[in-house]
Amino acid sequence: MDKINAILKYLERSKLIIIDLDGNIVWIKEKNLTENSNLMDVGKFSNDFLEYFGDSKK
Questions:
Q1: Given this model, what pLDDT does residue 15 score?
Q2: H/E element, 17
Q3: CB-based contacts of 27: which residues, under 8 Å, 6+ apart?
C-alpha cells in the first residue's frame, strides 16, 4: 500500500493526475495532449450521454 501511495503522490506532484478532496482521481493528463485541451475534446462519452446532451463534435 505504501508503494501505491508513493506513486500517487508522485503523479499528483508532477501534475499528471488531479485528486479531489475525497481522494478520487478526477483528471489524468496525457503527454500527447496540449494545455488547451478541454473535456469535450479528450473525454470518452457513452452513446447514451451523447444522445442526451448532444455531440458538439458533429
A1: 79
A2: strand 17-19
A3: 17, 18
User: Which cell numbers hold the place of 25?
Assistant: 482521481
- From the list 28, 30, 6, the residue with the least C-alpha distance to 17 is 28
For residue 37, the one-letter residue type is S
| Listed residue (39, 47, 36) closest to 28, CA to CA | 39
The single-letter code of the amino acid at 13 is: R
Q: What percent of the chain has pLDDT over 70?
A: 69
DSSP 33-49: S-TT--HHHH----HHH
Q: Where are the domains of the chain?
A: 2-53
